[in-house]
Automatic annotation (TrEMBL):
This is Acyl-coenzyme A thioesterase 11. The lineage of its organism: Eukaryota, Metazoa, Chordata, Craniata, Vertebrata. CDD domains: BFIT_BACH. Residues 50-162, 224-337 form the HotDog ACOT-type domain. One of its GO terms (cellular component) is mitochondrial matrix.
């Protein structure tokens, strides 16, 4: 880890730094106690403002820009790092190091004279690490226009005086937005941990031979011609108060050599569009020499991936270099109308060059999956997303995060109450959602185990005829083919292909979660014997109330074909929901007793 302080925009990036206590920029980060209001996007802090929130506004000066008069990405990364680290240290009360940063997609460029507004706040604190969310926008002072630039999530680790980890106090979310981010932070953390495995798995199933793309009238450029190597001496202005190199400074140097490598391929001025998730692997201090290497790994039709590596060594060259960081940056070349230009092809070097070429293609596929599934709003994700091994992590993330988002909504209204069963509704622009809950005399873990197996649902839900386990993805994700009972108003029964994702609590106070959503599988296409149904977001949340009791809640975003049935129950013309949930309780209690007898 690199002790220092920085953070970056939107995707899956990672690096390490240590506590920044201030900024040398013309404008400082705004503290919660400041009474002066900043007009525009950063104005008027609310009385319930998150105590970890940091706001920074920077005027883009000519010294911050490139030859086109646009803010350099390296400078932006420095500012993001400063704001995010201040937020992390505000919660931890001690120096922090940046452990990881999610992928960043830069939506727009920023011109000289415009203002960069950065907002950072801690979303959730785990044991010794915390997730910081960062939002970056720009403001045009002449027109008053505001526009989003990127959104990022960074992970920081708190460190004590001797570098030991510090146990963090929990963070209690207040607003609906904070509750959603707090809940989904655990799922984002899980996704980061399996990121490398996703790439390895995809490569293991891809052909080993490197097939070069052909483009009419374009000769392939040897990748070796794009190679760049540069050295930087770390001086006191490049480091924080503890003498550790700023992560933002390292990223700025890496972005510089990556831009040169990209320019050597296209013989034009490229624009950085995205940075892949990355991690700082070791520290760098004042006096270190940083060797930065970059090369174009692969060039697609309208974009190219540049790989960058940073290594550090001291005055003694005999000591081996320390690997500080590796990053992958995606560049495009834009014409005068802002449209991407077609790029030359790259001919990789044999051996490592071909490996990097293949890995770049795999990373592009993974990036597309993430943007298609993870980065979209829930209403923008197609219902039945095609399932395959390469996007399983992101579909699972989307499945669980969608349910957690629904659970965290603030405007649930009590629609009916019959005995112990309570029904709530949530009316939104495009959806009518309902929640049914009751307390059950069963341990939360037992209820979780029983309710997460769809093969047993027919024991209490009369609408289920059968459920076949089609694929056991891993311990937490399964795909089922579900067949419903034929209703009198239908000519044939419905069937569903459902991804079931289950999660145990990440920390005290979290519920057990079982999330359902539709997917498509080539092995189970729609057939003439069934009407293929779909579910967008549904599932169970189970909260422990004591060692022997738990609160079980079922959530569902009603699809149009299901809406009439839902509203009939909501307005009290049917008690089917209530009866089904009571049957669920009886099934849970019966299986609890059976388990006790077997033991």
């Amino acid at each position: 880890m690199v002790k220092e302080n920085i953070v970056v925009p939107e995707e899956i990036l990672s690096f390490c730094c240590n506590g920044l206590q201030g900024s040398t920029s013309p404008l400082r980060a705004q503290e919660p106690g400041d009474r002066e209001e900043v007009p525009g996007a950063m104005a008027s802090p609310s009385p319930t403002r998150n105590p970890t929130e940091v706001q920074m506004s920077q005027l883009v000066l000519p010294c911050h820009t490139n030859h086109r008069g646009e803010l350099s990405t390296g400078q932006l990364l420095k500012w993001i790092d400063t704001a995010a680290c201040l937020s992390a240290e505000r919660h931890a009360g001690c120096p922090c190091v940046t452990a990881s940063m999610d992928d960043i997609y830069f939506e727009h460029t920023i011109s000289v004279g415009q203002v960069v507004n950065i907002k950072a706040k801690v979303n959730r604190a785990f044991n010794s690490s915390m997730e910081v969310g960062i939002q970056v926008s720009y403001e045009d002072l002449c027109s008053g226009k505001h526009c989003s630039i990127c959104k990022a999530y960074a992970t920081f680790v708190a460190q004590g005086p001797s570098g030991s980890k510090v146990k963090l106090k929990p963070l209690t979310p207040q607003t609906e937005e904070e509750k959603i981010e707090h809940s989904i932070a655990a799922e984002r953390r899980r996704m980061r941990l399996v990121h490398k495995d996703t790439l390895k798995d995809l490569l293991s199933r891809s052909p080993r031979e490197t097939e070069l793309e052909t483009r009419d009238g374009s000769a392939a450029v040897p990748a070796e011609k794009t190679r760049v190597e540069s050295v930087e001496l770390v001086l006191p202005p490049h480091a924080n108060h503890q003498g550790n190199t700023f992560g933002g400074q390292i990223m700025a140097w890496m972005e510089n050599v990556a831009t040169i490598a990209a320019s050597r391929l296209c013989h034009a001025h490229p624009t950085l569009r995205a940075i892949e998730m990355f991690h700082f692997r070791g520290p760098s201090q004042v006096g270190d020499r940083l060797v930065l290497k970059a090369i174009v790994n692969n060039a697609f039709k309208n974009s190219m991936e540049v790989g960058v590596c940073a290594e550090a060594y001291g005055q003694e060259m005999s000591i081996s270099r320390r690997h500080i960081n590796s990053a992958f940056m995606t560049f495009v070349v834009l014409d005068q109308e802002g449209r991407p230009c077609t790029l030359p092809m790259v001919a990789p070097e044999p051996g490592d060059g071909e490996r990097r070429y293949r890995e770049a293609s795999a990373r592009k596929k993974i990036r597309l999956d993430r943007k298609y599934v993870v980065s979209c709003k829930q209403t923008e994700v197609p219902l039945s997303v095609p399932w395959d091994q390469s996007n399983k992590v992101y579909l699972s993330y989307n499945n669980v995060s969608a349910l957690k988002t629904l659970v965290a909504k603030a405007n649930w209204a009590l629609a009916s109450e019959k005995g112990k069963v309570r029904m709530y509704t949530l009316e939104e622009d495009k959806f009518l959602s309902f929640r049914i809950e009751m307390s059950v005399h069963i341990a939360a873990g037992q209820a979780f185990s029983l309710l997460s197996d769809l093969r047993r649902r027919h024991e209490w839900d009369r609408h289920y005829a059968s459920a076949e386990l089609v694929q056991q993805v891993d311990d937490d994700d399964m795909i089922y083919h579900v067949v419903s009972q034929k209703l009198s108003s239908e000519n044939k029964p419905q069937d569903f292909v459902i991804l079931a994702s289950r999660r145990k609590p990440c920390s005290k106070g979290d519920p057990y979660v079982v999330a359902f959503r539709s997917v498509t599988l080539p092995t189970h296409p729609a057939t003439a014997g069934f009407t293929r149904g779909e579910t967008l977001c549904s599932g169970f949340c189970i909260w422990p109330e004591s060692e022997e009791t738990s609160k079980v809640a079922y959530y569902n975003q009603a699809m149009p074909g299901y809406l009439n049935y839902v509203t009939t129950n909501v307005v009290g013309l049917s008690s089917d929901f209530c009866a089904t949930f009571k049957a669920c309780e009886k099934c849970l209690l019966k299986n609890k007793e059976d388990l006790i007898v077997r033991l």
